[in-house]
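Pinned message: reference record for Cyclopropane-fatty-acyl-phospholipid synthase
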Amino acid sequence: MSHVSPQLSQSISRSRSADSIQPHFPAGDWEVGPLNAGSDDAQASRFQERLLERFSRLKHGSINLFQGGQRFQLGDAPSELSANILVSDSAFYRRILMGGTIGSAETYMDGLWSCSDLTSLIRIMIRNIDQVSSLNKAVSRIRTMIWRLKHAARKNSVQGSKRNIVEHYDLGNDFYKLFLDPTMNYSSGIFDQKAAAGKFSTAEDALHAASLTKMDRICQKLNLQPGDEVLEIGTGWGAMAVHMASHYGCHVTTTTISEEQYRLACERVEVAEMQHRVTVLKQDYRTLTGQYDKIVSIEMVEAVGHEFMNGFFAKCSSLLRDDGAMCLQAITMSPQNWKEYLRSVDFIRAYVFPGGCLPTVGSLHAAAADATNMRMLHTEDMTPHYATTLNHWKRRFLSRLEAVRSLGYDENLIRMWNFYLSYCEAGFEERRVHCVQTMFGKPGSKIDVSTSMSGA
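Predicted structure (tokens):
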């Protein structure tokens, strides 16, 4: 790229180095350039002009874009939210115009740009969702069709679910250990007043405590008692199953379709000496049999798929005794955005969670009503806690990049995970997505959540 100062060139080099994936912005005054300045040639200049013009009316945030020795300022300055973007390849503009929001993620993963604060940048874009949506609508029909066809091919049938889970969870247990807390809960924690007051000695202690609080909250809502037969759909790495067995005296059957999770969960059950109370299965939920007092499922329902939701609830209902109850923790989509979400494919489903589909709270309740005789007992929003959880994960991940590389993962995956964690954190901060705990009971269920939680 022409007209790059030596100082800026060094910054671009450092942003791609083994030391950091964060950009280094040179100090000093930058010329504020016209919208079509700073690109290598006329065609690149036109792409730059078109993209910057599209976001020239940005509000509710401030973005400084650095390229070619110049600074382009977008949005309100000063502002509560701000971010600096360092463009290191002018193909950035063309690929975002042609690829929309998925193109922005792809160019980030490919190292065409870096950002001082990805979460703030994505929050600004969520606040300007109309401009982002118009960008996505301009994406070529061929690219859109390809993404939709790929997503449609990843339906969560029994075989499809297995393939989809392998792509995400079988990255390796050692990878997830790097940024999760010691329980290895890969779901939102609940940060209590002690965490809010900063009374933990380390951030890891706060994250660990939040995971324990979340698990206890679910156990208390279900009024778990010694001897209860509990089914967990979605084992994770076994933390919840061991917790229910060791702290509440339950007999737990837990199932996963991830080979990596199954292997480590079995090991952790043995270490906890809970083999007499915990049975770990490697089965799809559709093949389960038996009768249980309670069902727990923590952030697994997002992998069910919209078209399979009624079947999921029907299966759960058939596995519960007449006085049984179930508690789901779920990531949900805002109902205002859901129809468009179902018609489209976003970065998460394209690159991170193949086959994933966020429900709405309403769609969960509707599926339970349509397919079962269960009634809704309780729903609690815990969205702010997920933003905090993700911030902890991201900080831990970024502090352990050398360990990630030592496991054999390349810069593209590192940048993808940084984008993914920031993308999710921003979504929860802006309440584009939500996290809830919701409970359903069979006709004979006598659980009163207000009573069962009174000692919490």
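Pinned by admin. Summary line: Residues 1-20, 26-39 have pLDDT under 50 and may be disordered.
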